[in-house]
């Protein structure tokens, strides 16, 4: 049976046939030209005719003229082949590269460079995770986001309750963050319905993921894969588990608070976290990504409700500890009311070690730019304050500290995606080259000037 897919190139309207014919004609001329220059016997008939013409014109047989004609034929054939190749290549490239790309060469080079970038696994949830992903996606396409599924508030909580599925909100945020370019589809995924009806408060992206999961026989992985193709996602988004996990917290006064969204509202000091079911099963793809990673990054994000839920899945924590890749923790720039009140950078790391164990963090990346007083007062009004960097305590905990500018302006108190992504990649490359931490810190400060 003849394979017919090759004939699709001859479909009318593609504007490829003329250039393919031109390329073929050029190749034929090259073959004829080489044959003339080498005086092949099978072309003796044509040679005789040509030599007869030369003899009748000049009165002598001139093989130099014959070779010259062969050379000219070869050059003409190469020119035609070049034109045909360029035209066909241009048509194919334009078919697979976005229409709004001005410099095709730069686009191809960038994609090749990012395809060879380090394998970075980012673990967390909430807006902090999507902020980091937006910054990293311009440096490497080998990104894997392992996302918490314990969210039970807002649109995610309602869909989770109605359809007995994992929370789609953080998954949706990560898909949008890793999308190749801002587009109408991404705006649609972010759109949140208003009004007072049943759809009020729901995100279109959450509804889309929910519907797609139902269509694909409740297979979340297939739904995420299909969504990734639609959004042209760079990297992968993987739920930490596909089980319906409830996050629970025991406070220091002995009370138990159920639900990720309710824990900060309790405004009590957290003694320990646990989940129901007690031993959730991780996604195999998440474990494989951790094992193969060149770098593992925790945060930024809510310490107890975005980062910790992933680490409470025992196998994920075990694989992180066993991984040979460097393990980073990106500390928040501000404390979070109801979760990390009064916490220093060292307190954040100590909480992870106390609840999950040692071996999960070996480097902390902290902001080294002071905030304007107006910003500090604004955050104090809602119970937050800048996270103080206590290097001595971090050193006692066996963790190195990298200070860098992680915010765009002193008037803001949130991580800047572009700056954060660049700093993380600089740290990864520096560690791969064996740069000492104190030299790295100096380098980052110099780059921020």
UniProtKB/TrEMBL annotation:
<feature type="transmembrane region" description="Helical">
    <location>
        <begin position="20"/>
        <end position="40"/>
    </location>
</feature>
<dbReference type="InterPro" id="IPR010119">
    <property type="entry name" value="Gluconeogen_factor"/>
</dbReference>
<keyword id="KW-0963">Cytoplasm</keyword>
<dbReference type="InterPro" id="IPR002882">
    <property type="entry name" value="CofD"/>
</dbReference>
<feature type="transmembrane region" description="Helical">
    <location>
        <begin position="60"/>
        <end position="84"/>
    </location>
</feature>
<dbReference type="GO" id="GO:0005737">
    <property type="term" value="C:cytoplasm"/>
</dbReference>
<protein>
    <recommendedName>
        <fullName>Putative gluconeogenesis factor</fullName>
    </recommendedName>
</protein>
<comment type="similarity">
    <text>Belongs to the gluconeogenesis factor family.</text>
</comment>
<keyword id="KW-0808">Transferase</keyword>
<dbReference type="Pfam" id="PF01933">
    <property type="entry name" value="CofD"/>
</dbReference>
<keyword id="KW-0812">Transmembrane</keyword>
<keyword id="KW-0472">Membrane</keyword>
<keyword id="KW-1133">Transmembrane helix</keyword>
<dbReference type="InterPro" id="IPR038136">
    <property type="entry name" value="CofD-like_dom_sf"/>
</dbReference>
<dbReference type="GO" id="GO:0008360">
    <property type="term" value="P:regulation of cell shape"/>
</dbReference>
<comment type="function">
    <text>Required for morphogenesis under gluconeogenic growth conditions.</text>
</comment>
<dbReference type="GO" id="GO:0043743">
    <property type="term" value="F:LPPG:FO 2-phospho-L-lactate transferase activity"/>
</dbReference>
């Amino acid at each position: 049976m003849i394979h017919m897919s090759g004939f699709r190139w001859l479909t009318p309207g593609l504007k490829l046939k003329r250039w393919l014919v031109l390329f073929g004609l050029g190749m034929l001329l090259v073959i004829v030209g080489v044959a003339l220059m080498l005086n092949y016997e099978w072309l003796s008939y044509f040679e005789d005719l040509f030599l007869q013409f030369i003899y009748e014109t000049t009165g002598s047989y001139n093989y130099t003229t014959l070779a010259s004609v062969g050379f000219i034929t070869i050059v003409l054939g190469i020119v035609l082949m070049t034109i045909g190749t360029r035209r066909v290549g241009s048509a194919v490239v334009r078919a697979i590269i976005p229409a709004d790309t001005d410099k095709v060469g730069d686009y191809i080079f960038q994609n090749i460079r990012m395809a060879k970038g380090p394998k970075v696994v980012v673990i967390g949830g909430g807006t902090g995770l999507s902020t980091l992903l937006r910054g990293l996606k311009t440096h490497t396409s080998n990104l894997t986001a392992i996302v918490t599924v314990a969210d039970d508030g807002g649109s995610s909580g309602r869909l989770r309750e109605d359809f007995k599925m994992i929370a789609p909100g953080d998954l949706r945020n990560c898909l949008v963050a890793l999308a190749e370019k801002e587009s109408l589809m991404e705006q649609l995924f972010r759109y949140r319905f208003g009004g007072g009806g049943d759809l009020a408060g729901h995100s279109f992206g959450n509804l889309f993921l929910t519907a797609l999961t139902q269509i694909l026989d409740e297979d979340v992985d297939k739904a995420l894969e299909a969504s990734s193709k639609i959004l042209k996602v760079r990297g992968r988004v993987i739920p930490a588990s596909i089980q319906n996990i409830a996050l629970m917290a025991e406070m220091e006064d002995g009370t138990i608070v159920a639900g990720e969204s309710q824990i900060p509202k309790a405004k009590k000091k957290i003694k320990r976290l646990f989940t129901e079911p007690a031993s959730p099963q991780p996604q195999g793809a998440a474990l494989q990504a951790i094992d193969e990673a060149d770098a593992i990054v925790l945060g930024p994000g809510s310490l107890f409700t975005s980062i910790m839920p992933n680490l409470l899945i025992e196998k994920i924590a075990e694989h992180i500890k066993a991984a040979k890749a460097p393990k980073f923790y990106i500390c928040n720039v501000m404390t979070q009311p109801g979760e990390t009140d009064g916490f220093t950078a060292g307190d954040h790391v100590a909480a992870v070690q106390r609840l999950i164990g040692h071996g999960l963090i070996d480097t902390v990346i902290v902001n080294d730019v002071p905030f304007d007083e107006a910003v500090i007062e604004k955050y104090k009004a809602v119970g937050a304050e800048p996270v103080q960097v206590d290097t001595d305590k971090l050193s006692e905990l066996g963790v190195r500290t990298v200070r860098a500018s992680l915010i765009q302006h002193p008037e803001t108190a949130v991580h800047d995606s572009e700056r954060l992504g660049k700093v993380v990649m600089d740290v990864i490359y520096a560690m791969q080259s064996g740069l000492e931490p104190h030299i790295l810190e100096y380098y980052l400060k110099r780059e921020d000037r």
